[in-house]
Structure formats: C-alpha cells, structure tokens
Amino acid sequence: MNFRSNFWLKTATLAALLMPALALAEEAPPVPPPVLNSGDTAWMLTSTALVLFMTLPGLALFYGGMVRSKNTLSIFMQCFAITAVVTVLWSLFGYSVAFSDGGDSNAWIGGMSKAFLAGIKVDSLNGTIPETVFLTFQLTFAIITPALIVGAFAERMKFSSMLLFMTGWVTLVYFPICHWVWGGGWMMTKGILDYAGGTVVHVNAGIAGLVTALVLGKRKGFPHVAMPPHSLPLTVTGAGMLWVGWFGFNAGSATAANGSAGMAMVVTQLATAMAALTWMFMEWMSHGKPSALGLTTGAVAGLVAITPASGFVGPMGALVLGGIAGVVCFIGATTLKRKMGYDDSLDAFGVHGIGGIVGAILTGVFASPSLGGLGFSKDLDMMGQVSVQGMSVAATGIYCAAVSFILLKLIDAVMGLRVDEESESTGLDIALHGERGYNY
Fold this sequence. Notes:
- This protein is an all-alpha fold.
- It is 70% helix and 1% strand.
- It has a single domain (38-433), classed as Ammonium transporter fold, CATH 1.10.3430.
- A two-stranded antiparallel sheet has the order 1-2.
C-alpha cells in the first residue's frame, strides 16, 4: 500500500512540475512570418542602382580611357553587351542555380526550382525586402564580374568570341561559385567570410583575366611599342563612379538599412583612401612623379581588397588592409607583370586578382575582435579562419583557371579568339563595329 501511495504521489508531483512547461509550450506564439521593411527596401533599391552604375558607365569609362582611342568604343560595347547577356541568363537559370536549394547536390550547385524566375511574385520576400529586389541586386554582381575580365584582353579579342566566352563563363564558373559562397554551398558551410565578393567577384575575375591574357597572347607591339591611355580624364571619371557605386556594392550587402551597412560604408571609404595614397607615394618614390592613373588604380585596389572584409572589420583594420593592398597590388601590377611578361592590358589580374586574394585572406586576420573586427565564423579562431579563407581562394582560383582555359581553347578551335593583325592595327572600333569612338 505504501508503495502504491508513493508511486501515485510521485506521479502527481511530476505532472504538477511539468504542467507549467507544457502550458508554456502550448502558449508559445508561432514564429512570425517575414514582414517587408520599407527602409530596407529603399536602401536596397538604391544599392542595386549604384552597383549597376559601377558597370555602366563606371567601368566602361575607367577601362575605355585606358585603351588607345581606336579601341574605346569596343570597351563600351563589351561592357554593355555583357550587361544584357548576363541579365537574360540570370533570369533563365542563373538566379536559380546560384540561390535555390539543390537537394543532395546543394554543396556544389543550386536547383532549378526558380528557373525562369518561377514563383517570384510581387509579395515574395527575401528577409525584409522583396525577392525581386534581392535577385536584381545579386544580378548586378553577376554583371560586373565578367565585365572586369575585359581589362585583361582589351584591344585584341573578337566580339563574337567574347560573347560566347562570357556566356559559358558565367554559366560554368560564376553561378556555381556564387552558390558555393552565398547560396548555401560548401564554402558557406565551411565558414568563409566573404561579405561582398572577394572570392566570388574579384579572385574569380582576376584569375579568369590572367588565363585569358596568357591564352590570347600579347598585343601587337607589346611591350616595345608605347600604348598609353588615350584619355585619363575618362579613366579618372570612371574611377570616381566606381568609388561611389562601391558603397552600394559593400554597404548594400547588408541587405538592410542598419549598423552593418553603416560600418561597411565607413571601412570602404577608409581602405580606399589609404590604398590610393599608398600607391601614389610608391609610384612617386619609384618613378619620380605621382600620376593620376596611379592614384585612381590604387583606389580601385583598395575597393577590391576591402570588399570581402567590409562587413567584418573595424575602421583601423580597414586602414591597414588598404595600405597593404596598395603595396601588394602596385608590385603585382608593375614588377610581377614585367618579370612574367604577360599582357594583362588594364591590370585585371594585378588589381582584382591580387587585391581580391589579399583582401580575402586578410579578412581572416582583421575580423579578430582584438583588432577591432566583429569576430570569426562559427567556432573558428584566427588560424582556422585564415585557413578557410586560403582554402576558398585556392579552390576558386583552381576551378576558375581550369574551366576558363578549357572554354577559351574550345572557342579558339571552333571560331578563333583573336582578331587578325589588320583589324588590330586598324582598331576594334572600325574593324568590329564599323563605328568610331571619336570623329575628329
């Protein structure tokens, strides 16, 4: 009898203890659905316009001023055509491949559930902004990345071959790597810190540019014939537009109008200014005079280097990172190119490839709270984060180089990559487009 009494007494006591928890569990409100935030949406609409502004007209002017006058229009044509081609590909399958769930293959590639932008409606949300705005913002990144490669093969590639190469490249290289880093793929799982595109955009474009320059070969007369920029005012104007547009690039990657966006904006400004000054003073010391081209190129190197780090580092870390980028990119774009002898026409690899590598790896250093950063990914320490960053850079570089090389060789075998010598001497504006950039 005592045993039964104790049993029921214990049972009743346990039930009494559990009742509040059960009641709380029953009364716990459901997770509220995401709600559109008009402030976030307004900021992301602005950021999207700013990033597109970086390609048209920013990059077109920056690159267009650096080539010879007979090839200016070809640069504008390439940037404009890439914008159109990538936009169509993104809507057909690119966005889906990059940002939808790929099921069992999700580590490597997204699925096709959003192909043709299926299921995306006026009220579809991504966080607190319309999905239409998110996908267009990401589209502008997909546009500028292949456009950056143009700087490596300027003044010598066929327009038709360029279109085919860019179509294959964004499909086979950009879309998958975008998924690896931002769409739930294996690099994201490993804990990579890439706020706005150090690996996805700059390492990717820089490596592809180097491979393209090597496969195409040097311009006729390079390096013995002088090929100075025909209009530095265009280049400086384009660089200014890139600097302004980059606030949408980096601060917009917060996808919200919040403190993260504000910090990304200030560190972008600081790193860019420091890199511009560093490049200028190094050039001044080595060549005796500071140049407008050097100052603007240094600024772009700083913009590139801070891109992966912009959401993770503090102001003083950004200054140091900018200074390092100015030094390393100056050496890469001058000494390294001269010693290796490749013709990277407008320093796509020297600025974007090297700057992207420096920024991606050093993000793992300057994200440290002890250096004013916001901390590392998951449970990683500094060495672990740097290892993840380095592994991701290496994987991006190897994959991009291999696929780019195969694409270029296939296109060369089928239709040829390079214009003939007469067209190169005449200039691509007349030879390929029947128009002139200037009518003197």
